[in-house]
Amino acid sequence: MSGHTTPWAAGQEATRPRLRGRQRCDVAVIGAGLTGLSTALELLTVAPELRVHVVEADKVAAGASGRGTGLLGPRIGPPLHIARRRFGDEVARAAHLWSVAAVRHVLDLVRRHRIACDLVPGGQLVVASDEPAAEHQLKEHRAARMLGLPDRVEFVGRGELPEHAVRYHSGLRYGPAATLDPAALTEQLARAGEELGLVIHESSRVRGVRRGLLATLLTDGGELVADHVVVAVNAYGGALAEAPSGLLGVRVQAGVTQKLSDDQLAGLAGLADEPLIEHGEAAPYFRLTPDGRLVVGGGAVERGVHGSLASRPGRLLAAVRALSPSLAGITLDATWAGPIAVTRDGLPVLGEHRKDPWLHHAGGCNGHGLALSTYHGALLARRIAGADPGPSELPWLRSKGPWLPRGRVADRALDRYLGHLTAAAAPSGAAEDPVPPDRFAPRTEDPS
Ligand SMILES: Cc1cc2nc3c(=O)[nH]c(=O)nc-3n(C[C@H](O)[C@H](O)[C@H](O)COP(=O)(O)OP(=O)(O)OC[C@H]3O[C@@H](n4cnc5c(N)ncnc54)[C@H](O)[C@@H]3O)c2cc1C
Predict the structure, then answer these.
(1) Which listed CATH number (3.40.50, 3.30.2220, 3.30.9, 2.30.30) goes with 248-342+405-448?
(2) Is the shortest distance between the CB of 254 and ligand 1 below 6 Å?
(3) Atom of ligand 1 at shortest range from CA of 252
């Protein structure tokens, strides 16, 4: 899975030892992304006496957690006006506040553990490229008011949009939010856990879990016996029978420009603490890094989880160039892709296996997992440690995601749907740049 090039903390080779022989622990976590590492760290915080091991197929942050674009923000599941209709006001409100709590949890974690991850607090501005999108934003704002959330979802009319967003029709400003280096966050959650006694095994793919009096994780070189098992493999769950069903792994792409000049930065200064996200699934979005580079995501969604090549780098480049006339000659330093897990209802999956209460899982954050995965890991940990079972009646607290059709016909239908999303995600006001995909090929390709 490694080998991708991102602007984030340089991805080293796996350095932690493999799982060897037969070992014993209290909680075994499968997957060293934000979900798994946050689970482990919280477990060791609330119950320091526990023996916690994380077993990772590749290395820490090899999956989505090391390849994100670093937008930490609220929102979970469908838009508020749809959530109201589908779940009722109480759940729609609880859902949004849950996502706000997730953002706060990450901000608090960074502060408590002094995590150096280039955190820049601020907001998020979602912008409408056309009239239908602007109408949708008005509905969303009305729903936020009805739910008593007006201070968290603010409507921004055309005349009030910041200078770099004047070509859009309207905006919705969300908070609390921040930007950060997701790979650094993930790696430092691992280090904070290790300081509390966490054991991480890298290059140790779990092939299955043997059920018995206790559970036993099986890898090629070892076995790990545990009282509790946490499945935190998110989009990679297809290969593991113990992963919850109903999660579909798809690949999304991102890129980063060279450093911008002072003139280019001057017109985009507002992006430093408020990323710009075009309304629409897979639509382009942008943020600035503290060293003055523009990160861009969106523009394409593909079936499958393996591989780290962006499928439509020309889309990313066109989106950047369309953002401002000052970026007409800009180039991208790197592009990459990574896996996210989506569900049919857009909600995550967090809970225990229906028949095996010792088997816990969290995933399916539908591309919003920077805050939610980290929060969900911590909530799972508290449930396991008996520290705080939390609510049990919310629709994303469940043993699996909604049913997904499988087979060749379903795959063809899915490809058509993703093709439609990709077509609809073309950057507004720009033709796609015909850049051949291999121009940005990373140094090595995903071996898995
Ligand atoms: C390009 C991109 C941009 C994104 N941008 C954002 C963003 O701006 N904001 C946001 O909120 N979210 C974003 N996301 C989503 C976010 O990164 C994910 O939701 C989050 O990182 C998921 O964390 P995770 O720990 O659940 O999964 P992962 O990070 O994928 O971790 C799963 C781990 O499990 C390991 N694994 C898999 N199978 C096995 C096995 N059998 N045995 C052992 N280990 C195994 C994998 O190697 C991997 O390390 C983005 C994702 C991508 C790909």
Answers:
(1) 3.30.9
(2) yes
(3) 1
Ligand 1 pocket check for 233: Cβ under 6 Å? yes
Query: What atom of ligand 1 comes closest to residue 363's alpha carbon?
Result: 26
Output the pTM of the full model.
0.95
Interatomic CA distance for residues 320 and 301, integer angstroms: 18
Percent of the chain with pLDDT over 70: 94
Does 312 contact ligand 1 (Cβ within 6 A)? no
Residue 83 amino acid letter: A
Look at ligand 1, atom 19, and give the residue with the nearest C-alpha: 369
**CATH number belonging to the domain at 21-68+183-247+346-385, selected among 3.50.50.60, 1.10.10.60, 1.20.120.530, 3.40.50.2300:** 3.50.50.60
The answer, yes or no, to whether residue 428 has pLDDT greater than 70, is no
- Nearest ligand 1 atom to the CA of 206 is 42
103-142 confidence digits (pLDDT tens): 999 999 999 999 999 999 999 999 999 999 999 999 999 9
Q: Which two tokens stand for residue 392?
A: 């049990």
295: phi then psi, degrees, rounded to nearest 5: -100, 135
Residues of the chain within CATH 3.30.9 domain(s) are 248-342+405-448
pLDDT tens-digit profile of 51-60?
999 999 999 9
Hey, whose CA ends up nearest to atom 18 of ligand 1?
369
Say if residue 358's pLDDT is above 80: yes
Q: How far apart are CA 256 and CA 296, in angstroms?
A: 6
Mean pLDDT across the chain: 93
**How many Å from the N-terminal Cα to the C-terminal Cα in the chain?**
6
Gap from CA of 162 to ligand 1 centroid (Å): 32
